[in-house]
Amino acid sequence: MLSCFAPIATIASPSQLPQSIMATLIQLSNNVAIADWEVELTAIRAQGAGGQNVNKVSSAVHLRFNIHHSALPIYYKERLLSTNDQRITKDGEIIIKAQQYRTQQQNKEDALERLKELILQASQPTKVRRATKPTKASQRKRLQRKSQRSEVKSMRKRVDY
Q: Taking the complete model, does pTM exceed 0.85, yes or no?
């Protein structure tokens, strides 16, 4: 039996979960999800122009997600921590600021969607680059540009009469 306070990382299928727990998850794939207690959302005032409303309403959202303390599978954690992204701190915390929309709800949804995209993007294996030779045409072009550049530079020299 699942408790509401237990971290839920891998599940057999979403249909096996109680509806109360299911509503609190960010579904990453069929068997990987994030519980809402792992994500810290804070309402802050948005930057930029907006008149009096921007000074009164905290419509921007600051999302914090600690990779180390999350219930994500180890593969996801390792991939996220090895990702070179400015939103991931040295302490292993993902920080996302969403302020694109005027309402707090839309910014919250945007921040959660961006978190989901970041995790899914990091989980994708990188394609291995296959080394190829430059084509004959590209080699000819390169040598032609090189000789033209050399000629331009040689024209700058002092003229000896």
A: no
